[in-house]
Amino acid sequence: MSLNTKKISDWGLGLDKPMIISGPCSAETEEQVVTTAKEIAALGKVNVLRAGIWKPRTRPNAFEGIGPVGLEWLNTAKKETGMLTATEVATGAHVEECLKAGIDILWVGARTTVNPFSVQEVADALKGVDIPVLVKNPINPDLGLWIGGLERINQAGITRLGAIHRGFSTFEKTPFRNLPKWSMAIEMKRKYPDLDIVCDPSHIAGNRDLIPYVCQKALDLDMSGLMIESHITPSVAWSDAAQQVTPDALGELLDSLTFRSASVPSAGNELDKLRSEIDNLDDDIFQKMASRMAIAENIGSYKKDNSVTILQVGRWEEIVNKRIALGKAMGLGDEFLDAFLKLVHKESIRRQNIVMNAESELAGK
Ligand code: PEP
Ligand code: MN
After folding, report:
1. What is the CA radius of gyration of the chain?
2. What pTM does this model have?
């Protein structure tokens, strides 16, 4: 089945690529919503104000959203700033509330896209309504489920339709909260070249430091926009405190990004292509190294609990011999292999040391 969708630039909302959506993870108070909105609007680069009104939380007893009163705060912020408004819907009742309040754009969250019953309920509530909708990828890397979500909304008659790539849950310890699995977004783009895909670097990164990298990568993959969580005081946010950025930081981030064109220059492009292949491989190496060091920390805890020394010469020799043989077979030089392994070992010991000493400090308290 093909999707019948309009590009963001044809939504009639004055939007163009890249569409920048920002605002708090959750609406908490009127002041927080309106102040955040005013400060991000002042950057002159944000088109749409986001805020979660109903929050799907992993564990019970967490803040589950302020409810419909937050929609009024979004409207107040819209009046004061001129930004469009967007929020997440997971049920037919949410859709009704948003339509009543006049919210401009709706999105289906990742935890809803996984459930066809829920997506269908949202789609049924949207029948006969003309409002832009974005569908986040499901939390599991299942392209069919993501496409199915888009199809259900499309079949309800929604053509101002786009997708949001927010990464995929994993049990693995990685530097990301949700693995980007860029190939999923690329495959979606290959299947539906006319479908706009917006990237949500905040939920992919899960921490402020990795957001710029994820944003740039998304832009370089020709995504149509970014949804970045921002908050006037992120450290005290009621949800997703680690990944929200202040309006000032958002401004710096947006200024630091390079917006490139998707059209390929006719000549002289080979070097860029090769460089970008190297960049991608270096990114993978960093990601693997970060995962490796996270495991080293777990080993540190184990050694601490079992009173084992950090350094075990036998184990280290075994690693070095095996890896040098493998590296040589792969064509890597002796000197490089020796220096590289020493560096990795040094960092591993540093990380284990931190864990072991931090734990004994805590135990002493
Ligand atoms: C959100 O955007 O705050 C949210 C709940 O995201 P996701 O559906 O991607 O988990
Ligand atoms: Mn969030």
Report:
1. 23
2. 0.83
